[in-house]
Write a structure and sequence with these properties.
heterodimer, A: Rossmann fold, 6-stranded mixed β-sheet, globular, B: about 350 residues, mainly alpha, two-stranded antiparallel sheet, two-stranded antiparallel ribbon
């Protein structure tokens, strides 16, 4: 009998103010690789956390195997003992211990109540043999590549739990041949009858290795599909929550394409090892260019590579025809600005005031020894607070007291104050109210009208259609194309994002 | 399905530095350098001061005889550093335990053997309090043990502000207990045979050192300390009880500080407020020279023995020269520390490059 290993029924979970999971069903059978797909906030992680006991849930049932009694795991360790192990994106092992120790930490074989190293090493070799990795298990883990470390993590997981293996974005830091090796192992384990839950952002990989797909969106179940019956673009539509017919209806107003003269930014086969694959990218004066793609497709990575926040290992980058060094300060001096995606961690300095946050980038550009006078700081801050209509009690209010939208405007003001020629906005409208969104979009178009070039990254295609004259398309860390002119429609862009298959 | 092993071989290709690292890996690499350094210094000394018996077994044992307490402190410190923490209270604790011995044996006439037990229990309790604050209240170990340092020095002065020497016959018999070596002696200038020997406290210190080494290498607790120091988050996810492991490290280190206090009292049987100044720092220096890293997860308790010996050799050098000022031991200690810190930085850098 092909009885399911796991049945999750009507799982509901609330976070304060958010319905994280709403009546979600999920079934895993032995001998299948089951992809769990969804955009940010879809509930994938929460579902896995509920299953492995890292989070509690309010209603619903989890059934394991043929046991009719529902179970509740209270900790990942308990889930492990019940046969469910998780391997995370970051390798959760100890780099200073040997491979064998990592496999057996906390459960070392003993003789005369002392750790039996010989036995431990012997059993470790057997585990690594089983997963087809031929390494010296007595060497410390850190001498091996990330891929091997990941294999060791899987080795530990399957040695403890025989039934279910959860792989949470295991491929994000692996190169192609390493991914291939991982997939071989996954297929081997599947053929041995394990159930594998595979979470990834890479569409190609889903189609390469998975048997089934469960799609979640905004905490709700969209559906469970067999891989053969689910074309790529339907999958993208399911994840983004639109059907292609709906999308065709919303067409953006056309923006004039301004590809003329010398580009402000010209990137030629710029690539980052372990990150975005080499890409070409030009941005011309007075142009708002978008970057579209699913989460993890490399949008942010492109921006970071251009700005020098990540160090590219190939290609050349020219700003107005001149090569620049790859680091944020040089980029800033060359006239770039970068509003990062995570406002909290990379943008706001929470303890500083609105005024201090606004002048921060300009001050850095000038250098520590040419301090801006108080009155100059005041003047600049006031100018942008008025221009962007930032709602704050005073210029000296700590930024942490402002709403998300206003914080975003402060960060925007910080970069506008440096008078950049080229501004990168990574998800500038995420998590802010509709009114502010519209303001920021309008501002982008206005700034472009004044000659500034803007790279606009967003998860919302509609928003980019409204602001951008050209949109670069990212898929699985490759820049796969550009859309401009007539191609600027949701349906065209969505099918370019999905890729793989031609339009029907 | 493609052949797994062939794909794997491409993954396993390592850089030159990587294979070098694998060969002289980590703890052992730094430890080997320490041993080589010590041997080099000692042989150099023996050659330069060959007319002053620098290289004799007696002279070597002298270093152990005056550093038994430090050996135990350094081994304990290594353990704490491996766990990713630090304990700077141990020197002050040691002074306090000496004072407890002196005051209670001499002024309150408590039996010497009873006092050994009392002191060791006090050490465990002291460690338990520090451990709870570090492990369960998540307070920085530096801060916790800094408070511990002040507490112990304060308590020492409160027990007695005056120096008390221990005359108790029971205690004195322990003080004078020796292990004589039947060989390796020499005849001094007036023709008397000098038999090499170590005191009881040296034997006890070495036994403790071996016990700690066994614990760190062959017990689940010992390996858990390495795991917690290597990556606390991972250790937790692998099902280890991180908090309890850290607690036990400080409890054990409290016990070791008390034991070191006992040994120090055997070496110098008196209680005094300013006894054993900066010993926690010498212990840290010994641990670092012996290959422990402040980032945790790396170190070897046997290394700390060589860390102590290197420092003792420096002092010996200065003493044998006779003309150097007291600043020199500290100066050379600083130079050697710098050497090891740079070595560790290079070591860490090489490791980073591999990623």
């Amino acid at each position: 009998m092909n009885h399911p290993l796991i049945q999750m029924r009507s799982i509901t979970k609330n976070f304060p103010g958010v319905l994280a999971l709403d009546q979600v069903d999920f079934t895993l059978k032995p001998g299948e690789i089951h992809a769990l797909m969804g955009e940010n906030g879809a509930g994938k992680s929460t579902l896995i956390k509920v299953l492995t006991g890292a989070e509690e849930f309010e209603t619903g049932q989890i059934l394991l195997g043929e046991n009719p009694e529902p179970i509740i795991n209270t900790s990942p360790e308990q889930a492990q003992q019940r046969g469910i192990s998780t391997v995370y994106q970051e390798v959760n092992l100890c780099p200073n211990l040997s491979v064998a120790e990592n496999l057996f930490v906390g459960r070392q074989p003993k003789r005369l109540s002392m750790i039996h190293w010989a036995e431990m090493n012997r059993r470790s070799r057997a585990i690594m043999d089983r997963i087809g990795v031929d390494i010296d298990v007595e060497k410390p883990l850190e001498v091996y590549s990330l891929a091997v470390q990941q294999m060791v993590a899987i080795g530990r997981a399957i040695d403890i739990s025989e039934d279910v293996l959860i792989l949470d974005e295991p491929t994000s830091s692996l190169n192609e041949s390493e991914v291939a090796t991982l997939f071989d192992l996954m297929r081997k384990l599947r053929d041995e009858g394990m159930g594998i839950i595979f979470i990834t952002h890479f569409l190609e990989q889903v189609y390469e290795v998975c048997d089934k797909i469960t799609v979640l969106r905004n905490g709700g179940l969209v559906g469970e599909y067999l891989i053969e019956t689910m074309p790529r673009k339907d999958l993208v539509a399911a994840m983004l929550g639109r059907s292609f017919d709906d999308l065709a209806a919303i067409e953006g107003e056309s923006h004039a394409v301004k590809e003329e003269g010398m580009p402000v930014i010209s990137a030629r086969s710029v690539g980052v090892r372990g990150g975005v694959k080499p890409f070409d990218f030009n941005v011309f004066e007075g142009e708002v260019v978008g970057l579209a793609g699913l989460l993890g497709s490399g949008r942010t990575e492109v921006a970071r590579a251009i700005y020098g926040a990540d160090n590219p290992n190939s290609g050349t980058l020219e700003v107005k025809g001149k090569r620049v060094r790859h680091n944020p300060l040089s980029s800033m001096r060359a006239g770039m600005g970068f509003c990062p995606e995570s406002r909290k961690h990379e943008g706001c300095v929470q303890d500083l005031s609105v005024r201090e946050n606004i002048i921060l980038a300009e001050q850095t550009k000038r250098g520590v020894f040419r301090l801006m006078s108080a009155s100059e700081q005041e003047k600049i801050a006031k100018q942008y607070v008025d221009l962007l209509q930032i709602k704050t009690a005073s210029l000296d209010t700590p930024i942490s007291q402002l709403s998300g939208g206003n914080q975003q405007k402060v960060i925007l003001a910080r970069w506008l104050a440096t008078h950049p020629d080229f501004l990168i906005l990574d998800e500038p409208t995420r998590g802010i109210d509709v009114g502010t969104k519209a303001e920021i979009q309008r501002l982008c178009v206005e700034l472009a009208g004044q000659g500034m070039s803007i790279l606009f990254i967003s998860s919302e295609i509609d928003e980019m259609l409204r602001t951008c004259s050209r949109i670069g398309i990212m898929r699985d860390l490759h820049k796969v194309g550009e859309a401009s002119g007539d191609q600027l429609s949701s349906s065209t862009i969505m099918s370019m994002i999905a890729g793989g298959e031609s339009d029907e | 399905m493609t052949d797994t092993t062939t794909t794997m071989s491409t993954i396993r290709k390592k850089s030159f530095l990587g294979s070098l690292m694998a060969r002289f890996y980590g703890n052992n690499f730094l430890l080997i350098i320490t041993i080589v350094l010590f041997a080099g210094m000692y042989i150099t000394g023996s050659v330069i001061f060959s007319n002053k018996n620098f290289g004799t077994l007696n002279s070597f044992f002298d270093m152990l005889n005056s550093n038994s307490a430090l050996i135990v402190l350094a081994a304990g410190m290594t353990m704490v550093l491996i766990s990713g923490g630090i304990d700077i209270s141990v020197g002050a604790q040691m002074a306090m335990y000496c004072m407890m011995f002196a005051y209670f044996i001499e002024k309150q006439h408590v039996n010497a053997y009873t006092m050994i037990v009392v002191v060791l229990i006090t050490g465990v309790v002291f460690g338990l309090i520090q451990g709870v604050l570090v492990a369960y209240f998540d307070i920085q170990p530096f801060i916790v043990t800094l408070a511990g340092l002040f507490l112990a020095r304060g308590l020492t002065a409160m027990i007695s502000p005056e120096t008390i020497s221990i005359q108790d016959p029971n205690f004195q018999s322990l003080v004078s207990m020796k292990l004589r070596f039947p060989f390796g002696g020499y005849y001094n200038s007036v023709g008397d045979y000098q038999q090499p020997f170590v005191y009881l406290h040296v034997v006890l210190a070495l036994l403790i050192l071996i016990a700690l080494y066994v614990m760190m290498t062959w017990t689940k607790f010992g390996r858990s300390i390495y795991a917690v120091g290597g990556n606390q988050q991972s250790a937790r996810l692998m099902g280890l009880n991180v908090r309890r492991t850290k607690l036990m490290v400080y409890v054990l280190n409290g016990f070791l500080a008390a034991f070191a206090g006992f040994l120090f009292c055997l070496f110098s049987p008196a209680g005094a407020v300013e006894k054993a100044p900066a010993y926690e720092m010498y212990a840290i220096a010994a641990a670092v020279i012996g290959g422990a890293m402040f980032t945790g997860g790396v170190g070897n308790v046997l290394g700390s023995l060589f860390g102590v010996l290197v420092q003792a050799t420096i002092i010996k050098f200065v003493n044998f020269t006779g003309t150097l000022s007291n600043g020199w031991p500290e100066f050379i200690r600083a130079a050697i520390m710098s050497f090891f810190i740079i070595l560790q930085a290079v070591f860490t850098w090489v490791r980073k490059q591999r990623e």
